[in-house]
Amino acid sequence: MDNGAGRAWSPGAIPPEEYALRVLHQDHAAALWRYALRLTRGDEARAQDAVQETLLRAWRHPRVLGTSGDHARRWLFTTLRTRVIDEWRARQVRPEVVTDQVPERQVADHVDTAIQGLVVTEALRKLTPAHRQVLVECFYGGRSVNEAAERIGIPPGTVKSRLYYALRALKLALEEAGVITEENR
């Protein structure tokens, strides 16, 4: 077999779990991909996320890695289907936030606005570049999650995840700066 770098590898050269996962991927990834595409109605980014999450879950469950091909295949397909259904249900409960229209806020005192802008800018500098990028694209650029994903070149699910963690980190940075307090939450 080839390890992707042109060198042959043997089962003993890598940890058994990694070898089992490689075999599982080699045997089932193409079929999982086709199934995921059908379940997501052709949404390649969601299908890719679903397949990756399914294989990650298999890696976290070593009992699946050591089972026969048929049992592992049934487990993978069931896990993939469950993951896609769970994602669909979550989107029904928490629909995607549309950031195309940024609400206009009138602020009487321009000095307060300027100071808040400086504080937020400083808080944004404390974020990782990936988190800062999605915040700027979605909130300051007024792009939807799908538009931001296309512009950045990552799946929409990754944009959503990064937005969630970026907002948490931004809130923490603003709390540290004293902008957000218990009284104004």
TrEMBL record:
<dbReference type="GO" id="GO:0016987">
    <property type="term" value="F:sigma factor activity"/>
</dbReference>
<dbReference type="InterPro" id="IPR014284">
    <property type="entry name" value="RNA_pol_sigma-70_dom"/>
</dbReference>
<protein>
    <submittedName>
        <fullName>RNA polymerase sigma-70 factor (ECF subfamily)</fullName>
    </submittedName>
</protein>
<dbReference type="InterPro" id="IPR007627">
    <property type="entry name" value="RNA_pol_sigma70_r2"/>
</dbReference>
<dbReference type="InterPro" id="IPR013325">
    <property type="entry name" value="RNA_pol_sigma_r2"/>
</dbReference>
<keyword id="KW-0238">DNA-binding</keyword>
<keyword id="KW-0731">Sigma factor</keyword>
<keyword id="KW-0805">Transcription regulation</keyword>
<dbReference type="InterPro" id="IPR007630">
    <property type="entry name" value="RNA_pol_sigma70_r4"/>
</dbReference>
<keyword id="KW-0804">Transcription</keyword>
<dbReference type="GO" id="GO:0006352">
    <property type="term" value="P:DNA-templated transcription initiation"/>
</dbReference>
<comment type="similarity">
    <text>Belongs to the sigma-70 factor family. ECF subfamily.</text>
</comment>
<dbReference type="Pfam" id="PF04545">
    <property type="entry name" value="Sigma70_r4"/>
</dbReference>
<feature type="domain" description="RNA polymerase sigma-70 region 2">
    <location>
        <begin position="25"/>
        <end position="92"/>
    </location>
</feature>
<dbReference type="InterPro" id="IPR036388">
    <property type="entry name" value="WH-like_DNA-bd_sf"/>
</dbReference>
<dbReference type="GO" id="GO:0003677">
    <property type="term" value="F:DNA binding"/>
</dbReference>
<feature type="domain" description="RNA polymerase sigma-70 region 4">
    <location>
        <begin position="123"/>
        <end position="171"/>
    </location>
</feature>
<dbReference type="InterPro" id="IPR013324">
    <property type="entry name" value="RNA_pol_sigma_r3/r4-like"/>
</dbReference>
<dbReference type="Pfam" id="PF04542">
    <property type="entry name" value="Sigma70_r2"/>
</dbReference>
<dbReference type="InterPro" id="IPR039425">
    <property type="entry name" value="RNA_pol_sigma-70-like"/>
</dbReference>
